[in-house]
């Protein structure tokens, strides 16, 4: 029987091989227990409400719902669960969005296993963890997103193929508000189309 003193972890990563490797690495730690592993972002909240993990390790790019939107849901609905973003995308704009979503830690996938284990323990203790490469880039480049959190969320859902009507329903806003936001986003990014806006924002790490 597993000890109740072990740190309960939720892991969300859509690439099966990477997810399996991460589970194996995490469970090498005697005080870690991966209680649930997921491949979709839209399954995270319900799984967290069921299993009540202390730490959720979430990749940014997940099907169903992006990792930062899922992290925002956890921050509001399961505040006892700390979130650690584990991603191969290392851009300052992504760091800013992670902090806005209530994320406690941000670490790159290429980090050594010891760094991941240490980050999980720090995050579980309520201390913020930011990969040194990301922190340095943020300080040096000041590459912050011109998009508001709401605009970033709308553009992210647009990138996932949702229509203005579907996004309005998801965010409990009017279709007119969504369309106005999309027009504002396109203008801010000097984009020709919404598809172009998605490309620009993704390249910059803003969504």
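-> sequence recovered:
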């Amino acid at each position: 029987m597993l000890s109740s003193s072990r740190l309960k972890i939720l892991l969300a990563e859509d690439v099966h091989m990477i997810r399996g490797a991460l589970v194996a690495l995490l469970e090498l730690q005697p005080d870690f227990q991966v209680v649930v592993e997921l491949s979709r972002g839209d399954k995270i909240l319900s799984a967290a409400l069921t299993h009540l993990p202390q730490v959720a390790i979430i990749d940014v790019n997940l099907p169903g719902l992006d990792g930062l939107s899922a992290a925002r849901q956890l921050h509001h609905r399961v505040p006892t669960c700390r979130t650690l973003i584990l991603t191969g995308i290392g851009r300052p704009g992504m760091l800013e969005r992670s902090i806005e979503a209530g994320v406690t830690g941000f670490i790159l996938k290429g980090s050594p296993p010891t760094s991941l284990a240490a980050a999980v323990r720090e995050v579980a203790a309520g201390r913020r963890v930011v990969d040194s490469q990301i922190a340095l880039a943020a300080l040096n480049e000041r590459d912050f997103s011109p998009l508001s959190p709401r605009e970033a969320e709308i553009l992210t859902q647009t990138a996932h193929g949702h229509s203005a009507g579907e996004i309005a329903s998801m965010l409990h806003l009017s279709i007119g508000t969504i369309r106005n936001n999309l027009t504002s986003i396109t203008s801010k990014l000097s984009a020709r189309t919404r598809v172009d806006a998605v490309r620009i924002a993704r390249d910059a790490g803003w969504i």
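Strands lie at 7-12, 32-38, 55-58, 82-87, 105-108, 129-130.
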